[in-house]
Amino acid sequence: MKPKTVITTILVVFVVASAVYLVFTETTREGRRSESASQSTDPMVAGTGDKVIVYYFHATKRCWTCKTIEAFTEETIRARFPEQLASGALEWLTVNVDEPENRHFMEDFEMTTRTVVLVDKKNGVEQKWVRLDRVWELVLDKPAFVDYIWESTNDFLAEANG
Questions:
Q1: Angle between helices 64-80 and 142-161 (to 10 degrees)
Q2: 22, 42, 46, 160 - which has most CB atoms within 10 Å?
Q3: Residue whose C-alpha is closest to residue 92's, from 127, 54, 48, 43
Q4: Angle of CA points 139, 44, 42, to nearest 5°
C-alpha cells in the first residue's frame, strides 16, 4: 500500500471512531439527564415522608458556570452524605425551570436566577426552605464551594431532624 493511502485510511478510521465515541457519550449523558428529569417530573409532590431535598434548578440552555454549580453540588452531596441518600433522609434532584410544569419554582423559592435550594419536607409537606445563592460567588473556588454546600446541607439536616 502507498503511504498516502495508509495515512488516509488511518485518518478515516480515527474520524469514524471519534464520531462513534461522541454519539455514545452524548447518548449516555442524555440517558442520565432523562433519569434526573423523570425523578423531578413533579418534585414537590413526589414521595412522602420526612426528608430534605437538595434541588438544583436550571434552565434548558446552560453555561459553563451553571453546569459547574450542578456538578460541584452533586459531587459534594454524593460524597459527603452517602448514608443520608441511601436511607432516603436526603434526596438530590435537578429541575429544569424552563419546563412549563416547573416554572412555579422561580416564584415559590423567590429565585431571580437558577440556584441550589434545600427543602425540608415532613409527611410530604414543605416545612421550610433555604436558597444557597452563594454558589455563584464561590463557583471559581471549588474547596470553598464544597465547604459551603456541605456546611449548609449539614446544618439544614440537623435543624430538620432536631
A1: 50
A2: 160
A3: 54
A4: 95
> pTM of the prediction?
0.69
Dihedral, CA of residue 144, residue 147, residue 151 and residue 154, to nearest 10: 150
pLDDT tens digit sequence for 120-153:
999 888 899 999 999 999 999 999 999 999 999 9
Q: Which of 7-16, 31-40, 69-78 has the highest mean pLDDT?
A: 69-78
Give me the DSSP letters along 87-107.
HTSEEEEEEETTSGGGTHHHH
Residues 6+ apart with CB under 8 A from 40: 46, 93, 94, 95, 96, 102
Distance (Å, rounded) from C-alpha 157 to C-alpha 162? Answer: 8
Q: 4 is written with which cell numbers?
A: 498516502
Give the single-character DSSP code of 53. Answer: E
Which pLDDT score is estimated for 2?
80
Residue 116 phi, psi dihedral angles, 5° rounding = -100, 135
